[in-house]
Amino acid sequence: MSDTAAGPVSKRVFIDKQSPKAYHALTETAEAVRAVAADAGLDRTLVELINLRVSQVNGCAYCLDVHTRAALRAGETTQRLGVLAAWRDTELFTARERAALALAEAATEPANAAVQENAYDAARQALTDDEISAVIWVAITINAFNRVSIMSKHPVRLIPHQ
User: Fold this and answer.
1) Up-side HSE of residue 57: CA atoms within 13 Å toward CB?
2) What is the pLDDT of residues 84-133, one digit of tens each?
3) Exposed/middle/buried for 103, CB within 10 Å: 0-12, 13-18, 19+?
4) Contact assessment for residue 92 and residue 79, using Cβ atoms and an 8 Å cutoff
5) What per-residue confidence (pLDDT) applies to 2?
6) Total-model pTM
7) I need a labelling partner for 157 at 20 to 30 A (CA). Which of 8, 67, 121, 137 fits?
8) DSSP letters of 2-36?
9) Residue 136 DSSP one-character state
10) What does the DSSP 8-state code read for residue 127?
11) Which of 24, 51, 23 is nearest to 37 (CA)?
């Protein structure tokens, strides 16, 4: 990486641009997952909370930027977005949301079998089978987009007056 007057210049390949057929397939998957989530009854704010929490766990700045704005457009509050990283330590999230967030985290870091089982048990108490499936698909999909953006080092650009 070198620096210019405008800032650092990345030498990363934007894999979405380099391999557009593969990226197009991923975006088609995301569209199908959005439909599955809607059909299962997951509202847009919950989907965006999942997208944001997974992106926090993965450290994907680009996806955090995109999905913060999407969550706000969907009606999410700045207070809940501000404490999302510590959702377990607040009373601001419903049992359903908490179950979905725990399941999304387990899908993001699936190697810990005990965490995965606990998340699944909690999900069974608060979510239907269709909702469980949709939450997992949303988490899987945003995980894939996180990796595309992290490996491509997609930049987050300042949006004036926000």
Assistant:
1) 20
2) 999 999 999 999 999 999 999 999 999 999 999 999 999 999 999 999 99
3) buried
4) yes
5) 46
6) 0.92
7) 137
8) EEETTEEE-----HHHHSHHHHHHHHHHHHHHHHH
9) H
10) -
11) 51
Question: What was the pLDDT predicted at 32?
Answer: 98
Single-letter amino acid code for the residue at 131 = E
Q: Are 22 and 113 in contact (CB under 8 A)?
A: no
Neighbours of 92 (CB within 10 A): 15
The one-letter amino acid at 139 = A
What's the helix, strand, coil split of the chain in %, to 5? 70, 5, 25
DSSP codes of every residue in 43-77: -HHHHHHHHHHHHHHHT-HHHHHHHHHHHHHTT--
Which amino acid, one-letter code, is at 78?
T
Pull the structure tokens for residue 20: 């557009």
Which uninterrupted H or E stretch holds 114? helix 113-126
Mean pLDDT, rounded, of the chain:
94
